[in-house]
Amino acid sequence: MKAVFEYWPVLAQGLWVTIWVAVCIILGALPGAVVLAALRLSETRAIRVASMLLIELIRAPSAVVLLFWAFYALPLLPGMPRLSPLVAAILVLTLDGAAYGAEIVRAGIEAVHRGQTDACHALGVSKIQSFRKVVLPQALSQIVPGFGSLARSMIKWTAIVSFIGVQDVLYVANYVRGQTFDTLTVFCFLGAIYWILTALCGLTFRALEQLLPLNRALRAARASAHAPEIEVLTGAAQ
Amino acid sequence: MTWDWSFVLKILPRLMEGVWYTILVTLASSTLALSGGLALAILESVSTTFGRAFVCFWLELFRGVPTLVLLYFTFYVLPEVGIILPAIPIGIGVLGIVYAAYCSEVYRGSLITIPSELRDACVALHLSPNVTWRRVLIPLMIKRAAPALLNYVLSLFRETAVLFALGVPVLMGQANEVGYESFRYLEPYTLAGVIYLCMNLPFLYLLSRFKDKHA
User: Using one digit for the tens of pLDDT, what is the confidence trace for B184-212?
Assistant: First the structure.
């Protein structure tokens, strides 16, 4: 036990790499997911089908296979650059996250009842405005929790980057295990680290959910529930 | 390095062996996950504080830690306590246990959507709890949960690639080994990717069938 903690500087360094990779892929997957979902909801059939195929193509072989392919096989193709392990890992996991995230964004937007857009159209609200003011706030209350659980899984995905030699916490822990032969402590520590990271990520997204427009409106409505009716209406409208 | 078809033909039989192992592992661990998840959901529903705390602990533990870490943990720690198992049962067991945690949430969700009048009716008909669960609630739970469960089986199948870390000869493991032996990485990994892609198709077909039925 003591022997393991003598290695704490290396372990801390590995943990830092893991956190760094996790933050990069989660932040990178966000715009990727929005773009892919926008293409997926496009009015042109060809774009819709192409983006659907792209999403399935990224999701179908698991991240491990993609990672190995990008790291070992891609540089062998003519004209392709040799990626460093860290770049390959971040690239592949970001792509994977964007593909999964796109489906969450799409499902969130499609879950808003069609009548809402129709009503906006009938009221003469422009398309952009109806999306921004009516559809998006309602969709966000579905998208953010979905993205939260995706982010939690993405932290767990980072465990596979050690296969191609990124020195994340799993890689370092394996090294420490080889040095100290204290398997139980090392892996309990590792499990605890990942558990804490995912729990922290869950908490962050729970806090984000509180900031969503619909939740704020709901709280405002609840706070003024005892007040006269007119106040409830203005509270909900804000 | 260019694509070499004769090399592809040479390694195809070995990759196919990996396909069989992938199917075997997927079937075995999904059986474990589906039945284990059902058992957990029922335990959560019928038991009092202690059982609930156990299920809650189980779910938090196995959903918060990467499968790879759990795999390494069981693979290296079990021999230390004197249990020596080959890699394949360990892989099947760990994947099954992890996905049982995910599946139990799905079952629990479908159990909640069953109207409580149905349970009242079972009490009114004087059915024993055993019969109520076995003949009424469980079939309904499974029927309602089927599409979501299939989704989890699909992710379980995708995750079997990780088992190559323990040396289980799944498709990814075979591709890795072939590439390592002949120092050609382009063909094995590309083929593995394509085969994994094709193995997804039956799942996607089934899922779209479910979607049509429920829409």
Answer: 888 899 999 999 999 998 888 888 888 77
